[in-house]
Structures are given as C-alpha cells and as structure tokens.
Specification:
alpha/beta, TIM Barrel, 2 domains, eight-stranded parallel barrel, 8 strands, 12% strand, elongated, binds 3-methyl-2-oxobutanoic acid, binds zinc ion
Amino acid sequence: MDLVRIFDTTLRDGEQSPGFSMNTADKIRLARQLAALKVDVIEAGFRLRRMATLKQFKKVAQEVRTVPIAALARAKKDDVNAAIEALKPAAAPRLHIFLATSDLHLRVKLKMTREQALEAIGSMIRYGRQHVGEVEFSPRMPGGPTSVFCARLRVAVDAGATVLNLPTRWDTRLPEEYGAMFTKVREYLGDPQGIALSAHCHDDLGMAVANSLAAIRAGVRQIECTINGIGERAGNASLEEVVVALAGAQGQLRGYDGHSHARAFPTSRMLTEITGAQVAPNKAIVGANAFAHEAGIHQDGIIKNPLTYEIISPQMVGVPARFDGPGKHSGRNALRMTLRDLGYEPSDTELAEVL
Ligand code: KIV
Ligand code: ZN
C-alpha cells in the first residue's frame, strides 16, 4: 500500500481517442509487453456490452495472467454486468466503476439528483463486490463542495471500493491544487486501512505528469497513465515520464522502482507501430530527439561525460544508441567521432576543411 503502483490504461483510455483503435492481436501483443514492463494493473477495455469488445477483452484477460486486469463500467447495472462477464477469465480481476458526479454532469447529462448519484454509487459498488474481489471507483470530474464530494467517497468505501481514483476535471488544475484535493480527501476519510487513492490526469494543459507527481506527494499510491501519453483529448499522463520521474526522485516520492524501465522505449515503438501515430521528436524520454544533441558544446560534453547534458542514460529506458548526427550546430569533436564511425581518420587540416 505504501508503494506507488502503475495502472496502465493504454488499452482503454488510450484507445478511446481518434486514430488509436487496436485489433485483438495488437491488444494482446501490447498487453504482454506491458506485463513485461511490470506495470501493476492493465485496464483493457470499456463499452463491454458490445459483443466484439467483450470478446476482445476476454482474450486479453485469458492471455495475460501475471498482471491484474481492469474493466471499466458506468455505474449502471447493464454496464457493470458486462464488465463482470468480461472479467471472468481474468486471473486477478478489477472492476472499475465510474460516475460523472459534478452538478453540471448530473443535471445536464445524467438527469440525476445528488441523492440519486449517491444511491447509484453505493448500490453498484456493493453489487460489483459480490462478483469481483477488487472494485475501484472514479467520481468522474469531481466538482462542487468538498463535503458533498467526500461523502460520495465515503459511500464508495462503505460499499466495498478499495481504490478511489480522482480524475481531474479537464486538467486545468495546477499541481498544488490537485495535490491539495487529495490531502483534503485523506483528512476527511481518515486514511482508512486498505484503501488506495489514485490519480488520473489528462494533459489538457501539459500538466498531467506534474499533477500525478503532486498527487504522489499528497499520499496517492496509484497513478493511471498510458504509453506515449495517448488518451482522451490531449492524452493521459505518460507512463514513461512518470516511471523515470519516480526512479529519479531518489526516495523523495516514495516511488516504486520495480518497473522495467529498459522496456519503455521498445514499448513506445511497439505502440507507434500498432497505431501508426508517431510521437513528436521532442517528446520526453521516448521522442527521437530525447537523447540527441546537435549543438557542438553539448556534443562535446556528451563525448567527455554523458552526465553533462543527459538526465539519465538512454539505455536505462531501452533507447539503443544516442543519435548525435552532425548538423549545422555541430563542433569538431562530434564530427571527428562521426567520421571515425564511418571509417575515416581525418588529419586536423582535413577535419577543419570538412567542418
Ligand atoms: O478521464 C476520466 O475521467 C476517465 C475516468 C473514466 C476514469 O477516464
Ligand atoms: Zn481519462
């Protein structure tokens, strides 16, 4: 309970954005890779009342047995039943129930009162727990008075939820605000034994990873994230950035260092191959330029000691080799190394001429 767990939702939230659909074989391949990366939970799907999605989910759950598998459902009996069915083949199933609980959502979308929302939360979690050993609850887009919001969490805990996941409302919150929300929740709930708080951040303002780390500081023990940060709208917190940040925090964040970082880059490449959607070259950790240096001063530093300009060794996340291609801003040292790699040993005069 004290270590930060990685809940990967590439196959669910990640797939839920335009251009990221995956077929069954691809989902199984990616899920196996996520298991090798040692994530702690794989959320493998939603909309499980659809026969094709249900079949696909069951196959993933049958094939990947070393990691708990989560199924997402709205707080509605039909949806929950479909998720329970989908989880039958899973070795370690987790039912993830959500409800959009802001007053705006209740009034405009769900046509529910606050009281009806409370009743749906309690009854669906209680029902889910009769069939699945572990139930996670997400009050989607929290809003309104803290006391009302926390009362819903209390109902969820009393009904048997063991993970409380608090997605940000479109992620316009600053890290301090998001962290403070968890602090309040912990005060309200009095840190009940056996309950883990979880963060689920989207990158609408580029703060998904910062918000996730702020949540960890405030006591959160599960981070929901995706490979390459894919997901609804601007995407989710990027798994590779979160795990490297945790590994680099040197104990400050009480992170879990059991993830297999060396598979981060190959997993990112597997996903781009499956979806055809490339990551931006300047994407942190897995972008083509994340460990590339063109400026002469930087290349010179890297040759002398990589720690001069690199946060970690590229090999730590499975990047095969640094790409220090010579370019307009390169200097003498890097050019000599490149020529050497190509089999040339230029004299100083020749090198100056090439430069
Ligand atoms: O972003 C969100 O609110 C979600 C929930 C369903 C967890 O993905
Ligand atoms: Zn989401």
